Sequence to fold (289 residues):
Amino acid sequence: CSNRCAYCVIPSIRGPFRSRPMADIVAEAERLAAEGARELILIAQDTTGWGRDLRGRPTLNGLLKRLCAVEGPRWIRLLYAYPKNITAELLSTMATEEKICRYLDIPVQHIDDRILRSMNRRGNSAFIRRKIAEIREAVPGIALRTSLIVGFPGETEEQFEGLLRFVQEARFESLGVFPYSPEEGTAAEGMPGQVPQEEKRRRQGLVMEAQAAIADEIGLARIGALEEVLIEGRTDRKDFPFRGRTRFQAPEIDGITYVRAAEMTPGEIVRCRVTAAELYDLYAEKADG
Fold:
């Protein structure tokens, strides 16, 4: 990664951003497809920066179109997409290519301009808000996930309250929030105004409480909807013996969907009707036909 955020040690450990050649990525996708993979997930420290260091400067948009042509996988998902590199062209492809999940993970970390500058993040609060609106307008029904840091050095109660209001206004489908942790060798480690650990945990709890209420409302609104579910395996429940994920649930970081059906096979993608919601998880029944 080449972004050099003030709290992150990764560039010092792993060096600057490096893109894998398109042919290498496509070859891996074809190998995974031959092995039966149903979903391909693209992830990097800055996924939307892919290609800028390669000859000819290929774009993520071009890579996605090439991957959509690989036979076998039904879903393609993007994680860790920096807002500054999300282009109108990319959003158009996401809206028109059936394989690409209408799901985007955009780590914004904070919304206060001073904190963003201290973090050495690109873009300000106005840009972040505009980009979120642009994404939702270009890709109707998209599920947005973000990650936030609370208790960054110097974060005041007023700045935190602004972040909390932003969470309530933006209504992300999924959200991860982390108390700032000083990493040895980073710029933020020695910054003044270090926030006590107890206060960081309090702020984290308030954000998660606000997000839980939003997630609950979003889940309840999905009841009755027909959704594709990628079956991952069995549960130990008699009423919902299978578990899987919808297009708006990334593995391990989002909720899961419990499915009632007589028999299903892991890797199968089935149409299900959502019958209930519980915070981040959904309950569904296999739809007829």
In short: Strands lie at 39-42, 75-78, 100-105, 143-150, 174-179, 226-234, 242-245, 257-260, 269-278, 281-286. The mean pLDDT is 92.
